[in-house]
């Protein structure tokens, strides 16, 4: 069913794909197909916001990682240099070595939107 939903949404030629846990609960074959769809969308210039608890998925499919913790943007990371352990630590609010920490928060951007 996840594969069908991803395929259907991609057929509308969107400019942004928000994928929240796109491979949760699917078999390995479906997971690979979904990852291929996401990679192809990126190659075609589609912006992808990927939300996942699968750290290998995040690292493997992302150009840039931005980590939020308790509603605050706490770190930027390069998927080419970060490990799943470091990413997981950032997601729990712990400091890590390969992350650029930021003081950004959602509140900081409210003024920008006005």
Account of the 3D structure:
By secondary structure, this protein is α+β, with helices and mostly antiparallel strands. The protein folds into 2 domains: 1-62, no CATH class; 64-114, no CATH class. The protein contains 5 helices and 5 strands, in the order αβαβαββαβα. The strands form 2 sheets. A 3-stranded antiparallel beta sheet has the order 3-4-5, covered by helices on one side. The longest helix has 16 residues, at 28-43. It is globular and about 40 Å long. The protein starts with a helix and ends with a helix. The model is unreliable at 105-114 (pLDDT under 50).
Largest sheet, in brief, is:
3 strands, antiparallel
What distance separates the N and C termini? 39 Å
- Structural shape: globular
> Based on DSSP secondary structure assignment, what is the total number of beta strands?
5
Number of helices: 5
Cα-based radius of gyration, to the nearest Å: 15 Å
**Stretches with pLDDT under 50, minimum 5 residues:** 105-114
Along the chain, the helix and strand elements come as HEHEHEEHEH
What's the overall average pLDDT, rounded? 81
What quaternary form is this? single chain
Give a quick rundown of the structure.
This protein has 114 residues and is of the alpha+beta class.
